[in-house]
Structure of Methyltransferase:
Amino acid sequence: MHCPVCGRDHIGEAGPVLASLSDVFAPCDACRGTNLDKAAPLPPGFEPCGPCACGRQFIDDVFAAIYLILVDEGALAGTEPLRAAGVPITNPGFAMAAPPHLPEDSLVLLSPHPDRAAAGRIVEEVPAVQGVVRTVPATPGIGPDGGAAAHTLLAGCDVQANVFSTAYGDIVVYKEVSTMHIEFPRPFNPKIRSVEREIDRHTPRIFIDACCGAGTLGLAAALAGTPVVVFNDAYGPAAFWTAVNIAVNRESLLVESVSLPPSALPVSRTDPVVVAEAEGDQRLIVYQGDFARLPPLVPGIDRSLAALDLFGKEDRAACEAALAQWQKSGGGKAFIP
């Protein structure tokens, strides 16, 4: 599938991505690597091991190479711990039993430190790095005040896939790291399990992923066999990547055709509008808009179950208010995963 960021066709269907997981980051017999203390600076004069003949490079050596470029460019002093270089996001991301040996274009770096010059050098000189994103303190998306925040892609491409396990199989979820909230895959995902438990309890005809992000929970509901799944998010990048992820996972779903929206959706939208649909024995619909305005647009909502996956779940009063607003707007059963 054509990537809207870099133009390459590296957004793959779920099947080949899942088939690659057993060996995508596995070392060959000749691979070597240096285990480094992430809480300490690099040792004086340290030279990281380069990529093996197989093309893979141990993640600690990749990070050491990144660190040295940041020091050379003046973004770090060289006294900071290695982990200060940033946060590594592997592509694909999944729960791993051992540190990865990274092939070319398999890591996105999130860091507050680099400028464009440093980022360009990192992508050019460290083969494993596919993109460098400069982070801001805010979480990407629409904040409580209605304003939107995002990180900045400085070099390369930041489209990355995560693999999430469900009781009915694995799903592949792509997103643009600079514009989307990151959730790291774990062996057990409590939100996915919550969705599956509530579906088992209520057997809804319609499942609504009301604050869908990149669509993970709605896809889990679809994989569980729910006849109709409605995805919604006010944030344009979330609605776009949800549609992409329906297409990516369609072989595991009961759909035959998927319509994709233009990548240039509005950053935010209040009144929900349909931006993508998938048809077959299941029906999947993607809206962009305020979830509180969605219920009147969903036929048969009295037979629905909605997940409100809100930010700030520690604020119980805000969560209760959101559930009350959903009910007041005409929504059916709802829960916060």
